# Entry
Amino acid sequence: MSDPTNLFPCPTVDTATVEATGEERREAARIRDVSVVIPGDRPITAYIVEPLEAPTGQAARPGLLFAHWFDTEAPNGDRTEFLDEAELLAARGVTSLLPQLTFPWTADPTGSRHDRARVVAEVGRLRVCINVLRSLPGVDGARIGVIGHDFGAMHAVLAAAAEGDVRALVFVAGTPRWADWFLPFWPIDEDRLDYQRVMRDVDPIEHLPDLEDTKVLLQFARSDFFIAAMTGLELRRAAGEAAELKAYDSEHDMATDDVRADRLRFLEEALRYPR
# Structure
């Protein structure tokens, strides 16, 4: 399989600029509405959520990137999905970046060549966001975690593999392959095997083995209409026996309290920040 660093190229952080478009202060967090401007590409709208208090040392804080799920009917099917969680984490001294994803949010899957190119581009944009997160004042670039749900989880795996030094990954209710979603739910007029063949090198399951030095938590629902119960086992086998696999009495939205509690526990242990 191709080296993910080369497969999913991204501009260097020096070429991206962050422009603030709004700010809100809450009890323990500052939430900045920003636009990450990338030369030659569309800007990425995002939230930066950080503690109100200044860091106590040079690069003292862990940094988290949250990649949201796809649900065009849900009020949180966008970058707001993890906003409350990021605010909670800010009270524990963590800085988070929550970008708005674009594929397939703003463009339908239509065929393997198009879809592969869109996945590669989306992962490159997430890599830009990870590097912007590393560059924020007070963030420890060696303590970066990536959390993704649904399509966000699938993009997140690829971005973490391409970066190579992400400390922790939480994969929530995603599938091993893009074809698992795109072929059943979009009218793609292409032979199934041909589609899978073209998409294979950008499938998340192909790059989970690249995360040798990354702590991995896989979270799945027992009552998920979209994802078969065995999916978690297939992904854990690819990730290695050190990966944690947890199943919950939840549906695909994974909105139960125990899902969040296990995720916070895992991140606390992997990134070493106080409870």
